[in-house]
């Protein structure tokens, strides 16, 4: 699939549900190996999210992160969940955003003891900068729950292993303190996700954790107090704001530079204007250098049904790329379905086809390329009369 998509992964159902609540009309997306994702847009925003559940542990997180990256070609990968705090200044419900992820279980066992061989992944500079800006703006905390303390966001290393730490005096806790004493929180999936992202052209990855316990033997108490859903709700709120900012940054990065242009957007070196059927088109460009070539789509000329199918595919691509919103897509898709039924009816109802296409043209009028495509199909249908 294409378009500006951000993959969000979680390990637990409570984490998945917290993120899913942020999505508008999530749609099921089945991977060929059976993994199920849900794809939707952030409520009230433009960001397209592919949400997945990976289960506990770094290994499954790495495998399914790789699967999601290959399936969606995302602009960023976010992992959202709960974690245990490793420092007393971090309160329950606070959010920890990883600047580094430590995989702390690596090492070698020798006669004089266990020697650490840690691995570490650092968040990309741009993603870190955007996350800090989201925190400074503070708009993400506007969730209407004034009875709860406003959560703080902490930036620092996170330790990722394969065990749940629930003690301050165990050998495992002592190992973390001696070798990773700057880690703010401890969890079980971040290293796998970071490794998968690193192996895919260093895809930006951000690990966001809501603090639901203190890793000090009181986890059962904090779980009974329902700190997991409260903490992950805060993490999900920050994630939604971060995803929107990452999407906006990506769109601005791709937008052509219009500095110095007058009256129109700066255009690239090559401009293609395509005329189909009997339509004629002039050259729509700022400056023309070299020859002008006119091309036609013979397959679309020959078969209105094929042209309608092509238009439907282009509508899906526009929705996936964020060019049109979900409501516009839904309304236009319904009209295209009506047009297809009328086109294949016996006898063929070209009047109904034309009416449906005119409605689609009105819905996508702000997107010039789609509107032109609708006009092309309208021309083919009129020739059937």
UniProtKB/TrEMBL annotation:
Transmembrane segments: none annotated. Residues 247-267 are annotated as: Disordered. InterPro entries: Nucleoside_phosphorylase_d, Nucleoside_phosphorylase_sf. Residues 258-267 have a biased composition (Polar residues). Residues 5-242 form the Nucleoside phosphorylase domain. It holds the Pfam family PNP_UDP_1. PANTHER family: 5'-METHYLTHIOADENOSINE/S-ADENOSYLHOMOCYSTEINE NUCLEOSIDASE (PTHR46832), 5'-METHYLTHIOADENOSINE_S-ADENOSYLHOMOCYSTEINE NUCLEOSIDASE (PTHR46832:SF1). This is 5'-methylthioadenosine/S-adenosylhomocysteine nucleosidase. It comes from Actinomadura yumaensis.
């Amino acid at each position: 699939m294409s378009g500006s998509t951000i993959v969000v992964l979680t390990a637990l159902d409570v984490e998945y549900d917290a993120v899913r609540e942020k999505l508008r009309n999530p749609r099921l997306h089945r991977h060929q190996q059976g993994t199920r994702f849900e794809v939707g847009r952030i409520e009230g925003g433009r960001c397209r999210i592919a949400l997945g559940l990976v289960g506990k542990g770094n290994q499954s997180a790495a495998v399914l992160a790789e699967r999601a990256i290959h399936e969606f070609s995302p602009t960023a990968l976010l992992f959202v969940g709960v974690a245990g705090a490793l420092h007393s200044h971090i309160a329950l419900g606070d959010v920890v955003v990883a600047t580094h992820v430590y995989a702390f279980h690596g090492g070698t066992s020798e006669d004089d003891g266990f020697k650490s061989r840690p691995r570490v992944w650092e968040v990309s500079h741009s993603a870190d900068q955007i996350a800090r800006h989201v925190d400074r703006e503070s708009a993400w905390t506007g969730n209407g729950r004034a009875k709860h303390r406003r959560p703080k966001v902490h930036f620092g290393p996170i330790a990722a292993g394969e065990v749940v730490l629930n003690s301050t005096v165990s050998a495992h806790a002592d190992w973390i303190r001696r070798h990773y004493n700057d880690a703010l929180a401890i969890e079980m999936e971040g290293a796998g996700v970071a490794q998968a992202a690193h192996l895919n052209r260093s895809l930006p990855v951000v690990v966001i954790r809501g603090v639901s316990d203190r890793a000090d033997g009181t986890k059962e108490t904090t779980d009974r107090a329902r700190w997991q859903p409260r903490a992950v709700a805060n993490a999900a709120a920050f994630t939604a704001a971060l995803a929107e900012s990452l999407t906006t940054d990506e769109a601005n990065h791709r937008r052509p530079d219009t500095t110095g242009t007058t009256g129109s957007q700066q255009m690239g070196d090559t401009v293609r204007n395509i005329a189909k059927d009997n339509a004629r088109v002039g050259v729509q460009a700022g400056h023309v250098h070299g020859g002008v070539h006119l091309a036609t789509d013979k397959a679309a000329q020959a078969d209105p049904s094929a042209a309608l199918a092509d238009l439907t595919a282009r509508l899906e691509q526009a929705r996936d790329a964020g060019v049109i919103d979900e409501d516009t897509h839904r309304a236009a898709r319904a009209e295209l379905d009506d047009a297809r039924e009328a086109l294949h009816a016996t006898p063929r109802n070209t009047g109904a086809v034309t009416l449906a296409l005119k409605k689609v043209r009105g819905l996508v009028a702000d997107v010039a390329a789609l509107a032109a495509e609708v006009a092309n199909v309208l021309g083919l249908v009129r020739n059937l009369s």
